[in-house]
Design brief:
Chain A: InterPro entries: AAA+_ATPase, ABC_transporter-like_ATP-bd, BCAA_Transport_ATP-bd_LivF, P-loop_NTPase. Chain A: Keywords: Amino-acid transport, ATP-binding, Nucleotide-binding, Transport. Chain A: This is Amino acid/amide ABC transporter ATP-binding protein 2, HAAT family (TC 3.A.1.4.-). The complex is a heterotetramer of chains A (234), B (292), C (412) and D (288). Chain A is an alpha/beta fold and 234 residues long. Chain A has a domain of 128 residues: Rossmann fold (3-Layer(aba) Sandwich). Helix content of chain A is 37%, strand content 29%. In chain A, the strands form 2 sheets. In chain A, strands 6-7-8-3-9-10 form a 6-stranded mixed β-sheet, sandwiched between helices. Chain A has a 4-stranded antiparallel β-sheet with strand order 2-1-4-5, covered by helices on one side. In chain A, helix 7 links the parallel strand 7 and strand 8. The radius of gyration of chain A is 17 Å and the shape is globular. Chain B is mainly alpha-helical and 292 residues long. Chain B has one domain. In chain B, strands 1-2 form a two-stranded antiparallel sheet. Chain C folds into 2 domains: 233 residues, Response regulator (Rossmann fold, 3-Layer(aba) Sandwich), CATH 3.40.50; 148 residues, 3-Layer(aba) Sandwich (Rossmann fold), CATH 3.40.50.2300. In chain C, strands 7-6-8-9-10-13-14 form a 7-stranded mixed β-sheet, with helices on both faces. A 5-stranded parallel β-sheet of chain C has the order 2-1-3-4-5, sandwiched between helices. Chain C has a two-stranded parallel sheet with strand order 11-12. In chain C, 46% of the residues lie in helices and 18% in strands. In chain C, helix 2 packs parallel to helix 13, helix 6 crosses helix 7 and helix 13 packs parallel to helix 15. The chains are: A alpha/beta (234), B mainly alpha (292), C alpha/beta (412), D mainly alpha (288). The interface between B and C is large, with 50 and 59 residues.
């Protein structure tokens, strides 16, 4: 089933459109990568999807329901979770507070325990303020927080942005594991090659428009793509 | 009637100078200076103390007053420029209070709370009151022209670019800092000269005349008119004056409001206008006339 | 999102335009027969906001009463009131507007030195009488046209009186608590001079800033000198806080303060116990005087509070009476200079004494040409520079009431 | 003993500023602007106490409780009619708008209550003397009320689900929204808290001083200084900074005198910011 579907989506600040008409979709249990140069409008697109941009127009549906008319706060209950770039946890909240913010009650309690067993490092530091966590732990917390609400889709904005290559590899592993939890992933990545390797499909943005789209392997193999957006082999 | 109009023009003109200076600092360079009355006081006292007890030429004193205020402004900016804008606002506000209390405390120099009297008027061709208003208007025109030229110069384009682009602001370069310092200094100069004009116009100054309320009035003028526009400072000052002075006449046709009530209503109306404009029309009254 | 609450430029300008239109329509004083126009630029807001309303309402109430009683010398009074914000530039603008738009002939109830200094060149040039409570010596020098009347006794005379009180009561270790403003510093400095001349010692002087929430360290410093009397030179709000905190800190030394600081409102707020035995001085020799009783009644009507709450209102009351008496004496008055001359003729100290406008009117009808008006705020005598000599009454607070003790006359 | 008494004086001074700094800091932490109307909220709080005392015949307790309700309502109204619309403009614009609100509140107060002073009725008592160390009974109550107020604020912030949401929104607005936190509910809690802090703070200030339209405004700048020193948006830091500033200010009086003590906090503010631009207990904001 088709989860997220964007048609002719435009997103912008003030009078300028950064995203200038994008068609995009994410299927259930699918990992989709969005790559592109700096300033191509990747982050703005995600903000638009999450309802956090000042101005969004076009069509946007989630599991058949209209998204545009819903506030950012409503999107979570539809089943979309968001992990922004860098500032992806609440730094002054403790680890367990970061998780419990996503929901309370019996259900949440058991869900939290699941998270702690999934990320044991977090389980050991339940009462620590998130600001005191290491970069890797923080990233884990961000994932755990996003998973708390049992979403159907997780939107990741450059999950490896501030991480070392070793940690990045770990993060990509985690993203792959999400599939086993029945979660689809829409991911923005600078490390497009690595990201596409674990993705089903990919979109390449340029100047606010989709420049290329296709199955991940096909994009990885495309020589033009190689030259323009992926650069030399890492 | 003519003297009332001249007085209005003189006092309004001094406020307009301050508004123009703030417009330069905040409107064009995005620097929120809430210490206006401090630089105003520095200029005022410098010129007054130089001329009150000696034969120091008034114009020379006014120039020194402006330079001193510019120097202080430049110095303060050097210290606080790297602070975020909210902190900058409060620190500059605190600075102006420090100036005022120093004036109260350093009695040997400033005569303390008793103020400085016997400040000579502005020597020119006509009577003292007319001299003042002519000079105040002339300085205003000069400042407006200078600002106009400055804004359109490469230097002006740089500071405007700095103000508009938040991202570029984050990666603040060395030259950007020096631009900002210069703008802050320039604004300080104009405020200092305004203070000197004020001192020579009234002939008497005391610390009570340099309360933060003056700073807020100037801000009100700039926000009402629309920051970043020459016309904004002018219209804002006129509207502010209309609120403060026009309401005196309003009461003559509304005799059921006593002056005691009117005093409250007048300030309340300014507060109300400020709230409405800031929240519903942040670009100010003149916002639509000039492009962004 | 941006447009949702937008107010259009047109709407804003229309609003301003209509205000301007109303402004243009107003301000034209209607031509009536013998209307005498009085300006009241008072401190409604700002630092002296606690006094201004009482001053202004007293002037308005007096005009109403005088008009009801048939006016003065065939004139009825019209009062134009303004707020000076206790600041010189709004004061000057208010005065200019009153002089030129409302064509007033006298400005009454002007409060501070900065305000009076800003106004006096304008009032001199326009031939308008200026009655004020400024204390700066320069005001006498600026009174070039003889149009100024200074109702506040000089700092020198207040220092003299303070010295007299301390000496008379036999205290040896006075300490002054001085608000950092022109008038209060002047009073303390003057007292110190007299005290030093007399005893050769310099009392401790503690300067305090207005608008502080907590004066404990200042008061602790004052009490450290082990004073037997504390001289407080300040105003009602700070005096209320200081009297309260002095008591809390266990002070037993007596306090001397002006009556406009230790007001009835202060006594009411703190309760009689805290203020018991405080020595207060006022510019009026005796609050049992006939003029004071009459003023008290006017103030009650104007403000619904006892007149002792506001010395400056008593002064405003006297200012109105003097103007009215002058007009009664010389109904043909048309210039400020003539008004000032006539005021000098009715204020004393020579001439037939009178306590009110009604009494003076009778005396004038009986042929008197020189009067000695004895006012609610003092004897209201003025030298040719418009200064009032000091003539003070000293009271003690007993069970929350002022009890008159003795009078002191300033001698240079 | 001299210095102990000065320190005591400073503690009282600090407590008077602490509520104001707390209110400034609370507002900044979530609404992200410096609220210049904070002092005038306190003035409103003090006037409501005076009014309720006049009606009920002098009950201070009832006055404070009533003031908490009324001031919280006014605070909420200010959010609903004004600050809600300023969420997307620069913080300087909000600051200027709050100056407008401050002027407006003060003029409404003076329109109805005049410019004369009022007093809050409480039993005035002499200090208790411990070998020269003086403790004024009302100061104990002031301290108690301040601690109770702090406890209330921190209980709401740290022990309730909505408090968690308030802190989350303060930390990261976008993330909080994506986590389904509705800012409206959080703002209602925030502005109610600000109103309650203002009511109690206003009462304390009114008790120590007199009630005139300017009392809150007069304390605003030192309150700002404390809030910034504590690291804007860090309520506990603000309270600690206020108390430290108060004590240091009073202890400094033998050196700097009573005139300059009023700018002590400003001088410290500038000095500290030169050394630590984010404030004593502030944290470097995360890059967004």
């Amino acid at each position: 089933m088709r989860l997220l579907e964007l048609k002719e989506l435009r997103v912008g600040y003030g009078e300028v459109d950064i995203v200038r008409g994008i068609d995009l979709h994410v299927e259930e249990n699918e990992i989709v990568t969005i790559a592109g140069t700096n300033g191509a409008g990747k982050s703005t697109l995600v903000k638009g999807v999450m309802g956090l941009a000042p101005r969004t127009s076009g069509q946007m549906t989630f599991a058949g329901q209209d998204l545009l008319s819903r506030s950012a706060e409503d999107r979570r209950s539809l089943g979309i979770s968001y992990v922004p770039q860098v500032a992806n946890v609440f730094p002054s909240l403790s680890v367990s507070e970061n998780l419990s913010i996503m929901g309370r009650g019996q259900n949440a309690k058991s869900r939290m325990d699941e998270m702690f067993s999934m990320f044991p490092a977090l389980g050991r530091r339940k009462r620590t303020q998130a600001r005191a966590l290491s970069g890797g732990e923080r990233q884990q917390l961000a994932f755990a927080r996003a998973l708390m609400s049992q979403p159907k889709l997780i939107v990741l904005d450059e999950p490896t942005a501030a991480l070392s290559p070793a940690l990045s590899t770990q993060v990509f592993e985690q993203v792959k594991q999400l599939l086993s939890m029945d979660v689809a992933v829409l991911m923005i990545e600078q490390r497009a090659r690595q990201s596409l390797k674990i993705s089903h499909r990919g979109y390449i943005l340029d100047s606010g428009k989709v420049a290329m789209v296709g199955p991940a392997e096909q994009l990885l193999a495309d020589p033009e793509m190689e030259e323009l957006y992926l650069g030399v082999h890492e | 009637m003519i003297h009332y109009v001249i007085t209005l023009l003189s006092i309004g003109g001094i406020y307009l100078l301050l508004a123009q200076a703030l417009n330069l600092q905040f409107g064009f360079a995005g620097l929120p200076n809430f210490g206006i009355v401090g630089f105003f006081a520095i200029g005022s006292y410098a010129s007054a103390l130089l001329t009150a007890n000696g034969n120091f030429p008034v114009y020379g004193a006014m120039l020194i007053a402006g330079l001193l205020a510019a120097l202080m402004s430049f110095g303060l900016a050097r210290i606080v420029l790297r602070l975020r804008t909210d902190y900058l606002a409060i620190v500059t506000l605190s600075f102006s209070e420090i100036v005022r209390i120093l004036v109260i405390g350093e009695e040997q120099i400033t005569n303390g709370p008793r103020g400085v009297s016997g400040i000579p008027g502005i020597p020119l061709l006509w009577s003292p009151g007319v001299n003042a208003v002519v000079l105040i208007i002339a300085v205003n025109v000069l400042v407006a022209l200078a600002t106009h030229l400055l804004v359109r110069s490469p230097f002006g384009r740089s500071i405007r670019a700095m103000r508009d682009d938040e991202a570029a602001f984050a990666s603040i370069s060395k030259s950007a800092v020096s631009y900002k310092l210069r703008v802050f200094g320039l604004g300080g100069f104009v405020m200092g000269v305004a203070g000197a004009l004020y001192a020579h116009y009234f002939g008497y100054i005391s610390p009570d005349q340099f309360l933060p309320l003056t700073t807020f009035y100037v801000w009100i003028a700039v926000i009402l008119g629309g920051a970043g526009r020459l016309s904004g400072a002018l219209i804002g000052t006129i509207v502010l004056t209309l609120f403060l002075e026009g309401s005196r006449f309003l009461r003559d046709v509304l005799p059921f409001i006593s002056e005691v009530e009117m005093a409250s209503v007048r300030i309340g109306a300014i507060g109300f206008a400020l709230m409405v404009l800031a929240s519903r029309r942040p670009q100010g009254i003149m916002g639509d006339f000039t492009s962004k | 999102m941006k447009n949702q609450g937008d107010v259009s430029r047109r709407a804003v300008l229309a609003g301003i335009g209509s205000t301007a239109l109303l402004t243009g329509l107003s301000g034209r004083a209607q031509a009536a027969g013998n209307v005498f126009r009085i300006g009241a630029p008072n401190t409604i807001t700002g630092a002296a906001g606690v006094f201004g309303t009482g001053v202004q309402n007293t002037i308005i109430e007096m005009a109403k009463r005088l008009n009801a009683a048939g006016g003065a010398g065939g004139h009825t009074f019209e009062v134009f009131a303004e707020d000076t914000q206790t600041l010189p530039e709004p004061a000057l603008l208010a005065a200019r507007k009153l002089i030129e738009v409302n064509e007033v002939k006298a400005l009454l109830g002007v409060y501070s030195s900065p305000e009076a200094l800003a106004i006096i060149p304008a009032s001199n040039a326009a031939d308008v009488v200026l009655m004020h409570t400024g204390a700066a010596p320069k005001l006498a020098a600026d009174n070039t046209e003889g149009l100024g009347f200074q109702f506040y006794p000089s700092s020198q005379s207040i220092g003299f009186v303070l010295n007299q009180i301390v000496t008379k009561e036999g205290y040896e270790r006075p300490v002054t608590l001085t608000l950092t403003n022109d008038a209060s510093i002047g009073n303390s400095t003057s007292f110190h001079k007299y005290w030093a001349e007399q005893t050769g010692s310099e009392p401790e002087d503690i300067r305090y800033q207005p608008n502080q929430p907590n004066y404990r360290s200042e008061l602790q410093q004052a009490l450290l000198a082990n004073p037997d009397v504390i001289i407080l030179n300040g105003y009602e709000p700070d005096a209320t806080i200081i009297m309260k905190q002095l008591y809390e800190l266990g002070n037993t030394a007596r306090v001397i303060a002006p009556e406009f600081a230790v007001t009835t409102r202060l006594i009411e707020a703190l309760g009689p116990e805290l203020v018991e035995d405080t020595i207060v001085y006022r510019f009026v020799p005796n609050s049992d005087s006939a003029a004071y009783t009459l003023f008290d009644e006017v103030y009650q009507a104007a403000m619904d509070a006892p007149g002792s709450a506001n010395t400056y209102a008593a002064i405003a009351y006297d200012e109105m009476n003097l103007v009215a008496l002058a007009l009664e004496l010389d109904p043909a008055i048309s210039t400020g200079a003539e008004l000032a001359d006539a005021i000098h003729k009715v204020c004393g100290p020579d001439g037939e004494p009178c306590n009110s406008f009604a009494e003076g009117k009778e005396l004038i009808a009986g042929g008197a040409t020189v009067l000695n008006y004895l006012g609610a705020s003092g004897p209201c005598d003025f030298d040719d520079q418009g200064r009032t000599p000091g003539n003070f009454g000293v009271s003690e607070v007993k069970s929350g009431e002022y009890v008159f003790a003795y009078g002191i006359v300033f001698e240079d | 003993m001299f210095y102990a008494n000065l320190a005591m004086s400073g503690l009282v001074q600090g407590l008077l500023l602490a509520t104001l700094a707390l209110s400034v800091s609370l507002c900044f932490s979530v609404a992200k602007f410096t609220n210049a109307a904070t002092g005038d909220f306190m003035t409103v709080g003090a006037y409501v106490v005076v009014a309720i005392q006049a009606v009920t015949g002098g009950s201070l307790m009832l006055g404070v409780l009533g003031s908490c309700i009324v001031t919280a309502l006014i605070s909420l109204l200010a959010y609903w009619l004004l600050f809600r619309h300023l969420a997307h403009v620069s913080p300087i614009m909000s600051l200027v708008a709050s100056v407008g609100l401050a002027l407006f509140l003060r003029s409404v107060l003076s329109l109805f209550a005049g410019h004369e002073q009022y007093a809050i009725d409480y039993p005035i008592a002499r200090a208790i003397n411990f070998h020269g160390f003086l403790i004024v009974p009302i100061d104990l109550w002031v301290a108690l009320a301040s601690v109770a107020l702090l406890a209330l604020v921190f209980a709401v912030l740290y022990l309730t689900p909505i408090g968690l949401q308030v802190r989350a929104l303060a930390d990261n607005r976008d993330l909080a929204r994506a986590a389904g936190i509705r800012s409206r509910g959080v703002m209602i809690v925030l502005w109610s808290l600000i109103g309650i802090v203002s009511a109690v703070g206003g009462t304390i200030i009114g008790i120590k001083t007199v009630v005139i339209p300017d009392i809150g405004w007069n304390l605003l700048l030192p309150g700002f200084a404390a809030a910034i020193l504590g690291g804007l948006g860090n309520p506990l830091g603000a309270v600690i900074a206020a108390i430290l500033l108060g004590i240091c200010q009073e202890l400094s009086t033998p050196m700097v005198g009573f005139v300059y003590k009023t700018i002590f906090s400003f001088a410290v503010l500038i000095a500290v910011l030169i050394w630590k631009p984010e404030g004593l207990f502030g944290r470097v904001e995360q890059v967004r």
